[in-house]
């Protein structure tokens, strides 16, 4: 449960903005999407490795389209 401390004089838009930021940082939506379908651990590892290789290629400038 997310709790937003708001002052009496604070605008509702600012409080809503704080809530949205906290919600995004808590990564609740990502957890829900991950739990919708089961991903095998081997596939999860493979995607992590491919992502790491891609980031490394970008950092080195070796990326080819």
3D shape = elongated
Largest sheet: none
SS summary, helix count: 3
Number of strands: 0
Distance between the termini: 44 Å
Low-pLDDT residue intervals, each spanning 5 or more residues: none
What average pLDDT do the residues reach?
87
Rg over CA atoms = 19 Å
SS content category = mainly alpha
Strand content: under 5%
Sketch the topology as an H/E string, one letter per element.
HHH
Please identify the oligomeric state. Answer: single chain
What does this structure look like?
GO terms for molecular function: structural constituent of ribosome. The protein has 3 helices and no strands. It is an all-alpha fold and 65 residues long. It has one domain (12-60). The mean pLDDT is 87.
Summarize the structure.
The protein is mainly α and 65 residues long. It has helices at residues 12-26, 28-36, 41-60.
Keywords:
single chain; Ribosomal_bS21_sf; 65 residues; Small ribosomal subunit protein bS21; structural constituent of ribosome; mainly alpha; 68% helix; ribonucleoprotein
What topology emerges from the helices and strands here?
Elements: H1 12-26, H2 28-36, H3 41-60
């Amino acid at each position: 449960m997310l709790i937003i401390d708001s002052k009496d004089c604070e605008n509702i838009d600012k409080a809503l903005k704080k809530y949205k930021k906290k919600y995004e940082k808590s990564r609740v939506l990502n957890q829900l999407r991950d739990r919708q379908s089961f991903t095998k651990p081997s596939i999860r590892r493979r995607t992590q490795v491919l992502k790491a290789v891609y980031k490394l290629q970008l950092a080195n400038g070796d990326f080819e389209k």
